[in-house]
TrEMBL record:
<dbReference type="InterPro" id="IPR011990">
    <property type="entry name" value="TPR-like_helical_dom_sf"/>
</dbReference>
<dbReference type="InterPro" id="IPR033985">
    <property type="entry name" value="SusD-like_N"/>
</dbReference>
<feature type="domain" description="SusD-like N-terminal">
    <location>
        <begin position="20"/>
        <end position="217"/>
    </location>
</feature>
<dbReference type="Pfam" id="PF14322">
    <property type="entry name" value="SusD-like_3"/>
</dbReference>
<feature type="domain" description="RagB/SusD">
    <location>
        <begin position="344"/>
        <end position="502"/>
    </location>
</feature>
<keyword id="KW-0732">Signal</keyword>
<dbReference type="Pfam" id="PF07980">
    <property type="entry name" value="SusD_RagB"/>
</dbReference>
<keyword id="KW-0998">Cell outer membrane</keyword>
<protein>
    <submittedName>
        <fullName>RagB/SusD family nutrient uptake outer membrane protein</fullName>
    </submittedName>
</protein>
<dbReference type="InterPro" id="IPR012944">
    <property type="entry name" value="SusD_RagB_dom"/>
</dbReference>
<feature type="signal peptide">
    <location>
        <begin position="1"/>
        <end position="19"/>
    </location>
</feature>
<dbReference type="GO" id="GO:0009279">
    <property type="term" value="C:cell outer membrane"/>
</dbReference>
<keyword id="KW-0472">Membrane</keyword>
<comment type="similarity">
    <text>Belongs to the SusD family.</text>
</comment>
Amino acid sequence: MKIKLIALSVLFFSLSACRDFLDVIPETSLTSDSFYKSQADFEQAVGGIYAPLQGIYNQDWILNEMRSDNTFFIYNVAQRGGKPQEDPATFTIETNNTYTAGKWTNCYLIIARANQILKTIDAASFDEAVKSNLKGQALFLRAFAYFDLVKNFGGVPLFLEPATGYKDTFKARAEATDVYKQLIIDAAAAAKLLPAKASAPGRATSGAAYTLLADAYINQKSWADAETALKTVTMLGYKLLPSYADIFKPTNKGNSELIFDVQYAEGTSQAIYNALPYLFIPILADPSILTGVKPATQQNYGGYNVPTPDLLKVYEDTLKDQRFSASIGFYTGPSPLIGITSYNRTPYIKKYLHPHAVYGQTADNGPIYRYAEVLLMLAEATNEQGRQADAAGYLNQVRARAGLPPLVPGSQADMRASILKERQIELAFENKRWHDLVRSGLAVQVMTAKAAKIKANPQAYYYPAGSAPIATAFNITDRDLLYPIPVSEIITNPDLKQNPGY
């Protein structure tokens, strides 16, 4: 969907969600002027802003986890239909890539819906506390979408008003600094408007807004500002759960460690379930060996987002660190689907694989922010301000929960490396690693080293015997730190310039 069509469509759209954004209703021909009147109208409309979050999260593992040194894919010689999913891991992103286009479209859909609400809500007459909450959610989600866009594409067009005509849908790219400035304004405003407790499952809170604000500050290296926002979060009642595995259980949704997550529910009536765990297990004809649920017919997919040997080596003590067994499982057994007789202790993501009743459908939510990351961000912010003892204190809270001994404060450079390593382990498979490498300036170095290892020993990185990546794969340069603007946007908007090198 092109950005201009998204923006223009807001004039005519009736949001495809009820008060709970998981309840989907058919679109109608109502105009925004006739729709946005009552509290119920705005509650329904705000619910609709959340819906594209699932589309973003369903693809983020491709663009932000598999592209890093954390995960890779099992090369399936019998099924090359998955090549677009694999391309980000081999740094061969094309300007028409489905997944970068999907991120662009879903982020601007959030922005377009938020803009319509923010334009009209102040004039509406209903309870001011409810109105502030709804307005805060719209501001938070607009900030979230712009943050996602600027991290992945750099400077992007800034739309802060709903389109009133076709000409309003064409804009040049704003500078990245201006995008950051606007999303920080939005997140700060949202933090003041939102309640500490969510009004419904999955809804934004002041804690989510302050965490987003701090994340944006950290990406701008505004360390003191980030620390201020993060310390506010520490006073809002969040805490680490004693058991790392318990954080992600569908039976434990809304627990005290979760700050913001993407909601899923098991069920067939509306496409709101999470199918990602089935993509992440090895390619098995009968996945019930791992999932406990048999398919009606043979399954022919899987083997994506597979933990790499690089990641497995990062864990300093796989027996003591409870995050290892909670996050990663291993499978040894037959696989007649991809030309090999069996897997030999192949790792897979266990973090989101929990009991469920329906094949291909799980209720696992997608974590975006949780309290452990707040502590790790505090460690980073204080370390960058020269306070290594404070940084170690925050870092060691996370390590203690994992079952590891405390780290003694070292130099700023040593602590920086320790924090980055702890983030890699604690937040594994939560779609953080690629951007951690980019913002730390290590992406080219780390991924060049991974490329050399893959080419030297393809079978260690899940290529079947006798196969290997093509010679031009993994040739990463600074160009690859940002994704290309989708070609559909470039063609239809002459003011929209492409990122260099594409």
